[in-house]
Input
Amino acid sequence: MEKNKFEKVEQAVESKLTVLEMYQRAPKRWLLYTGIVLLLAVLVGWSGSDVNFTGLTATGTEVAKGIISGITHPDMGLMLGTSATDVPYLILQTIAIAVLGTVFGAILAIPFAFLAAENIMPKPIAYLFRAVILMIRTIPSLVWALMWIRVTGPGAACGVITQSVCSIGMISKMYITAIEDLDTRILESLDAMGCTPFQKIRYGVIPQLVASFISTTIYRFDINLKDATTLGIVGAGGIGASLVQCLNSRRWSMVGSFIWGLMVLVLIIEYASTRIRSKLARG
Amino acid sequence: MNNEYKPKEVKEPLFDRIFKPQVITLENGHSTIRKRSRLPLILILLVAVLIWALQMTEFRFSTITRNFPKLLDIFLKLFQPDTSFFPKVIKPLVDTIKMSILGTVIGCALALPVAVLSSSNIVHNKAVISFCRFILALIRTLPTLVIALVCALIFSLGTFAGTLAIAIFTFGIVAKMLYESIETIDMGPFEAMEALGANKFQAFWSACVPQILPVYLSHCLYCFEMNVRASAILGYVGAGGLGITINERIGWRDYNGLGTVLLTLFVVVLMIEFTSEYLRKKLS
Output
């Protein structure tokens, strides 16, 4: 295939075509492009048929104005206060939920990842655990939260356990890739030196995995933090609950201060996580 | 002029100045240094943060172990899906898929020009770039559910609010991924075309677009995958789709019905993921 292409190019060069002739010989992709455009048009037409614009609600413009005025005039008392309903405390609580959820999730994901790695476990067991991981990933985090709320009751604890379980899905998927990329020659040479299994794990396995595991965990922390802001909607603690309450009771200046808090929080965490991960990647 | 070579002085990090590196003398007389491990410090910090977080969230393992049978009960019911409920799942499911298709298409279409405007190798105006990037960063900080809730408050409940929320969310993510990939493309062909006398637009169209297009399509497909998952819960705030059904089932504690909904969602998400992964492999 590759050779064939090469010969064709050589032929084209040898026959000394003018630019215009070369241009006319360019591969014709218009059929493919028309196909894609047609398919898109059909899909959009089909899906557009059911999404109908019913206009603004009676209070629509008022809500829009309210949100804008709230963002420009946030409630400063709420934004800088220190009590348990103020923005700083809720932000710290959101961070605490995400930290615990990520740490527990990262620890819980380790056995899952090793059990689902094809180069360690026999294939049937690996596939079974992959299916379990996939199922954990498919159930939306809000649904997990609604189920766990029956166990822990409403509050930040529900957020923690929800995030621990939800994180398993993605974290173990990334761990599996790292484990399957393990360089086994190192283990063989440690074997040849007469190392015990414990030494093999300490000097052969852990150094290879630790950087990518930590990088995955930090990345997931980033995601969990954004998720923790929405879990509050079902009563799982964090800043989301108060934001939604204020939105529903139309206290715009409070909405504004919560949105500012959220933005600052997410921007800082995103920046920090990118910095740390790029440092880890460079070694 | 003084051409004497001066080694650049490397300032030691604070940690190495407090805990001096260990000096090891080898058998051949050379000596080498081993920096002290930072592991204990990191562990202490981590444990402190964990203890603080545990107090902050009032998380107790005992509550979980005590009430675990309740969750087991829910799970047992989830795994015995109520098949008679299946017909009622189809309509909201199709709604969810329609919402995500339309939202993804709109969001991706809007993302293309903004991504081009915020990539530093094509636009050389710093103000435009930082303005576009700032807007994108702001949009990405807002959770989808909050956007959906605001949309539902402004444009009545239903699928339109959901579509809009998905479009905004997709716009933020695709534009960011796209400008990051545009910045890595090869600008050689672009310069060559300009040298041949093409104007900026012509050069962009025939030198950059063929490089960007496959990446763009693959980002769009990836985002579509995410959107199907995300839009399944948008109904929770009244933005139409499967979320309403899920919320209803949980509200009535009908976990067999919930099992049916989740199973259907699982199959659909799996199918979409496989198709999109196949297409993305073809694109690259």
